[in-house]
Task: structure prediction
Amino acid sequence: MQEALNCRNVNQNLYPMRTQVILLTILLAFWMAGCSYYYVSKVRGSEVFMFSTIMVDDEEIGLYHLPENSGKINRSSGRTLAIETRTPDPVSNALQYLEKSGPMTVYFGFASAEAETGEEFQRYLENLIVYLNNNQGKKVILYGHADNRGSEGANFDYSLRRAEHIKTKLIEVGIDEFQIRVEAMGDEFPIASNDTPEGRKMNRRVEMSLII
Result:
């Protein structure tokens, strides 16, 4: 009888200890879960995709397809892909157009200093303005020409007046006059026969040549 009472007292003493062990186990589980979350979110946070930057291994780069028009792709440290956009440069575009088009030729009527211009001339002027206004040390040369009808002095005068006429147009659209040089060539440099009206018209001209 006494032994039964003793066992009962022992069991009653162990009950609070079991409860404490269970509570400590639960607290330990929560603590471990919290540590795991901190490690994933803080320590390894750099491995997560963040907006425009993608962190990938070299082997995985082929799995990501970037847009064709996304601009220049720059790789740093072998693991980061950063997308850069390029803005068009108006001055470079203007220079590229001027180099590609070469000298601009403007033609004139017989005994006239009025140029026959069109859309191509206007486009050339637009690019010439952009380039010269951003390159003050550069110049454009205007070579005036004439056909061989008339005296040498008259033809020289016509070629000069034609070049001056184009110079005035350039100044009107905003080009500095100190960036414009005029050369009167008279009738010494024909590019076609002066025996036909068509040939003479081609010789009555001003050639605009940009010094780059």
The longest helix spans residues 2-43.
